[in-house]
Amino acid sequence: MTVNENRFLADLHKLREFGASGIAKGVVRPAYSDADIAARRWLAGRMEEAGLRPHFDPVGNLFGMAPGTSLLMGSHSDSQPEGGWLDGALGVIAALEIARSSDRPISVVSFQDEEGRFGVTTGSAVWSGTLDLAKADTLTDHSGTSFAAARSSMSDMAQGFVDPARFSGFIEMHIEQGPTLDAEGDLIGVVTDIVGIRDMVISFEGQQNHAGTTPMHLRRDAFQALSLFNAEINDRFQNVVTPQTVWTIGHVDVHPNASSIVPGRVRFSMQWRDGDADRLRRMEEIIRGVAQEVADRVGMDLSFGPMLGLEPVAMDQRLRLALEAGAEQIAPNQWRRMPSGALHDATNVSRLMPVAMLFVPSINGISHDFAEDTSESDLVAGLNVLGQAVEQL
Fold first, then answer.
1. Each residue of 69-121: pLDDT tens digit?
2. What are phi and psi of 162, to 5 degrees?
3. pLDDT of 326-369, one tens digit each?
4. Beta carbons of 63 and 98 less than 8 angstroms apart
5. What is the pTM for the complete model shown?
């Protein structure tokens, strides 16, 4: 197989134009936005030019179908609200280049809402059966828009769900989104496993009041409850977590969010990740327990949103060994086996078929930011490893 490196890079840069932020190589292309839908229409055209049959399913996942049974490759093309140009997009365009360069049947996919506007890897979760479509339709984003309403914007393109039995396995190429490869000078990471994730919303409700006349000892300040929770949870986790465990309060909604009003309500996201399912469960117990203790201590009403999450997943040995062989050919002594601390669509797809993942470096370990970048020589190295792996398979 001979891949066309220039065509691959040109398509990557073209995809970046859909939702370009104007800052560095940043992209603003959230799921179901005008930029996202336009990008998917363009991708469908490129798939058709490559001899694949474009197929949009009911949630907006875009497949480029090869005839008969094929290997599925790809990732996602939606972005974070302030995202980089490679997160997800790299895997889709690399898969497209392999499909049009190989004499073997390769299908391509761009999953929808991997970045979690509505949940956790929503598009691949619905397709894999991890998340029921009726339940997904009830999910809302931070503005209150429902998943059902958002996906209706693509209803004119929607067909049925693709039968996963058409595919023999799934390979996803991605930027590392962490510092290891860049710091160690390695070109390639072959993923061994993907961590599990848990994500839910917690709400404290106290009493909204005047900021000038309400004595401190009489306040039921919801933001102070969040502050206490954050400090306490970090302390309680110390004897449970490992250096690889992470947790994040990433989105906070304070009501009424005014400088002269004691906040009456705070709603915040709590997310935690680890490679051990038992540790994830234990962390959930601690989170719920600490939240209740804080609520009782400062006089808050407490509520929890639905728990979202995915289990840790090990990569398929046969596919992983093919990637390792390709890495040794393209980047001898400059590749490593490594876990993925970021979540990916491959986690959901693993319910349906064997999966594997390949990483290329992220400069300074930066991702989910306009500054996200990877050298073009590293992008091409990853593409060639994929090509070698397909030859091995």
1. 999 999 999 999 999 999 999 999 999 999 999 999 999 999 999 999 998 89
2. -75, 135
3. 999 999 999 999 999 888 999 999 999 999 999 999 999 999 99
4. no
5. 0.84
Segment 257-271 shows an average pLDDT of: 97
Q: Please give the full DSSP string across 273-341, using - where no structure is assigned.
A: EES-HHHHHHHHHHHHHHHHHHHHHHT-EEEE---EEE--EEPPHHHHHHHHHHHHHHSTTSEEEEEE-
Asked whether the bond before 67 is cis by omega within 30 degrees of 0, the reply is no
Tokens read off for 189: 């990471």
49-80 pLDDT per residue, tens: 999 999 999 999 999 999 999 999 999 999 99
Q: What's the residue count for the chain? A: 393
Residue 309 has pLDDT above 90, yes or no: no
- DSSP per-residue codes, 279-296: HHHHHHHHHHHHHHHHHH
Return the residue matching tokens 């761009």. Answer: 110
CA distances from 248 to 115, 197, 198, 272, 273 (A): 16, 11, 11, 6, 9
Q: What is the mean pLDDT of the chain?
A: 96
- Collapsing DSSP states into helix, strand and coil, what is residue 356? strand
CA distances from 300 to 112, 214, 226, 375 (A): 38, 17, 11, 50
pLDDT at 203 over 90: yes
Alpha helices in the chain (DSSP H): 5-16, 34-49, 89-101, 122-128, 133-137, 147-151, 180-184, 222-236, 277-298, 317-330, 345-349, 376-392
Whole-angstrom distance, CA of residue 76 vs CA of residue 111: 5
At residue 119, the pLDDT reads: 85
Q: Would you tell me how many other CB atoms lie within 10 Å of the CB of residue 294?
A: 23
End-to-end Cα, the chain, rounded Å: 13
Beta bridge partners of 257: none
List Cα–Cα distances, 124 to 47, 109, 131, 164, in angstroms. 19, 10, 9, 11
Amino acid at 130: T
**198: number of Cβ within 10 Å:** 22
Spell out the residues 6+ positions from residue 10 whose beta carbon is closer than 8 angstroms to its own: none
